[in-house]
Every structure is written in C-alpha cells, then in structure tokens.
Specification:
By secondary structure, the chain is of the alpha+beta class. Helices cover 29% and strands 36% of the residues. The chain contains 5 helices and 8 strands, in the order ββαααβββαβαββ. The protein has an 8-stranded mixed β-sheet with strand order 1-2-3-4-5-6-8-7, sandwiched between helices. 27% of the residues are buried.
C-alpha cells in the first residue's frame, strides 16, 4: 500500500469505502465537460475505480492512481503516474480534483508528490500528460509542474458530438 504525505494532503491507495465519494466526484458537471458521457455512467465509474484498486495489488508496482484526501480523510480527487514503457522509462500523469477544492493549490501539491514518486521510486526518465487543449486548468497544472509543451494532436478525439484537439506536455528527470 502506498501513502504519500504533503504539507496539507494525504495521497493513498483507494479503499472500498471511497467508492461513493468517487462516484460523486466523477458525476459532477464541471468534471464531465471534458469527458465522454459514458464515463459518467455508474458502471463505468465503478469499473475505473476497481481498476485503480487492482493496480494497488500489482507486483512490482508500475501504475499508481491515488486518492487525494485531507488529513481528515475527505476525498478531494485522485492523481496518478503510470509506467507506459519500462524500456523507455516513460510514464503518464493524470488526475482530477473536485470543483469545490480547485484554486487552492491542492492539485499542484498532489502532482508534485506524484511526479517525485514517478522519478524517484518508479525510476522514470520522462513523465507526460495528455489532455484536451480546451482543458486550460489541466494545461496550467502541467506547466506549473514543470512540463513543457511537446505538441498538439489535431482533432484526435471524438465525443459529445464534436472533434477535440489534445496537447502533450512532458518533464524529464534531469529537469525535475
């Protein structure tokens, strides 16, 4: 089991008792605007939650998606780093934060802890984030975490009746 602590947060593996809070977070309209509608279906949310829980059982641990909580245990969101290529020592970063907790630096604090884990514990050389260009908060977070833009994939995602562009940003171990 993984537990990371920051000055204001506890990042830990998801527990079964987190499912209802995770469902609420995933169903919020603010969260859903950058995801396909089917990701909000209860069975989709539960499947994703169970995937995160399953990663906690893997040995060796190469994929991590942790609950972001206050010390009181209140669930604020999740963030993770997942090894995408062991040979290339590359991983992806991503997460979500409940709308009520945005703008307080929690995402940056949690993201720094996960990138540190990715570079120091997982031994990654490169960590990247891929998000929709229109998800300006996610792009700003990646930049605050030291990531640089590497490129835009034009109209490579189709959902909600339209095409979306995605942006890829990354940070290298020596830049961290």
């Amino acid at each position: 089991m993984i537990t990371l602590t920051t000055p204001r947060l506890v990042l830990r593996d998801f527990q079964p008792a987190d499912l209802d809070d995770y469902r609420r977070l995933s169903a919020h309209p603010d969260f859903l605007r950058f995801y396909p509608e089917e990701q909000a279906l209860p069975e989709s949310v539960e499947r994703l939650f169970n995937k995160f829980r399953g990663w906690a059982e893997e040995e060796p641990r190469r994929r991590v998606q942790l609950a972001i909580t206050l010390p009181s245990g209140e669930l604020l969101g999740s963030c993770g780093v997942r090894t995408t290529s062991e040979a290339d020592r590359e991983g992806s970063f991503g997460g979500e934060l409940a709308a009520d907790y945005r703008g307080r630096g929690y995402a940056t604090e949690a993201g720094r802890a996960l990138l540190e884990y990715g570079f120091r514990t997982l031994g990654l050389h490169r960590i990247y984030a891929e998000t929709l260009v229109e998800n300006r908060a996610a792009v700003r977070l990646a930049v605050r975490l030291g990531m640089q833009e590497e490129g835009v994939l034009r109209q490579n995602r189709w959902f909600r009746g339209r095409w979306w562009d995605t942006i890829i940003l990354a940070v290298l171990e020596e830049e961290w």
